[in-house]
Structures
1.
Amino acid sequence: EIVLTQSPATLSLSPGERATLSCRASQSVRSYLAWYQQKPGQAPRLLIYDASNRATGIPARFSGSGSGTDFTLTISSLESEDFAVYYCQQRDNWWTFGQGTKVEIK
Amino acid sequence: EVQLVESGGGLVQPGGSLRLSCAASGFTFSSYWMTWVRQAPGKGLEWVANIKQDAGEKYYVDSVKGRFTISRDNAKNSLYLQMDGLRAEDTAVYYCARDVVGATGWLDYWGQGTLVTVSS
């Protein structure tokens, strides 16, 4: 099983700041990595797929990068609605999620 | 508008059974892989099972193999998860989700979830 490790567990930032979230895979997943956003009481929402492609309707302030085992989700300037939990997911070898990074208001 | 609506959750005793349903609308259900994902209270997401368009392929996470069965009825635009031999660790919100065409695993639409509680 491919294990995805996200860091940090919690990121405390202010609106307008840049957020950088990391996801590391236990073995290469090539570019088969996605990012999801989940707000309390809501279902997850697909943000990024294939490491760097924004899903339909996702604002340009969200970007993804990386390949192999190291991936990054960047939110260029945090808006109030971006404070949430973010999960990475791989589909290269079965399907697994990371444990999540919470982005909270500082 | 794509909609996925889960139902069938509830409280069940350990060892019991439940059948979850997911009613799909707003898209051609028979053209998509479909997936179940669960989330234990206060925890992260766990992929549970998925099923091909014609039900010819089904996959399960190891922890539910032999206990859970995923199925679908394309005529009724519905996805199901039969859960037998339930354990306390199966307690979670269960989401059904639609896979992106040509990219099985990327989940572009999700239902609101249904809560399953396994407790005596």
2.
Amino acid sequence: EDKVVQSPLSLVVHEGDTVTLNCSYEVTNFRSLLWYKQEKKAPTFLFMLTSSGIEKKSGRLSSILDKKELFSILNITATQTGDSAVYLCAVNSGNTPLVFGKGTRLSVIA
Amino acid sequence: EPEVTQTPSHQVTQMGQEVILRCVPISNHLYFYWYRQILGQKVEFLVSFYNNEISEKSEIFDDQFSVERPDGSNFTLKIRSTKLEDSAMYFCASKRLAIPLDTQYFGPGTRLTVL
């Protein structure tokens, strides 16, 4: 059975801190790993990773995939209160549905 | 920027009633999905739909559930006889291409409360 495990489940940091969120996976027929940010409602797409070792970057967020060790990390530098959200990791095994982890709840306090 | 829309944003219903959740996927997208998220739990896949038929469904998607694309824009999820445990956020998602690497985009969700 395909599995995606995220850690930590929750995290509280102060503004300005840097955080690293982890996602490990066990899936057959891996195609891509996706990170989403979920604030109040819908998951909002952040990154899609398909190749090992290539960092994807968007502003203060970055992510990298290790297909040998089967994990990905999402880094957020200089955190702001607006970064508070649940960060979801999901794995795509082809045209089968996304398999989600439970998410990491990040709280950034001023 | 085009986005997936869902209506209603919140639906309250009595146990045993039928509900229809509506989604309008992004217009040139071909694959459509329903997911649900019970409060405090992870997002779970329900069903995928392509070329006017179900392409895959999970064990959650039993005979009480059905999906339809009644016209060129709407994609609906019907629950025939709601149960208390159907209370959840229901997300619709769509993706443009019938290739594995294309990204799914999610709608804002419908919160279903079954009393």
